[in-house]
Amino acid sequence: MLQVYLVRHGETEWNALHRIQGQSDSALTAKGERQAQQVAERAKSLGINHVISSDLGRTRHTAKIIAARCGCKMKIDARLRELDMGILENRDISTLSKEEEEWRQQLVNGKKDSRIPGGESMIEMAARMYAALTSCLVLPKDSTPLLVSHSMALSCLISTVLGLPAFAERRLRLRNCSISRICYQKSPWLAPGWVVETAGDVSHLVDTPMLD
Question: Is residue 9 among the annotated active site residues?
Answer without folding.
Answer: yes
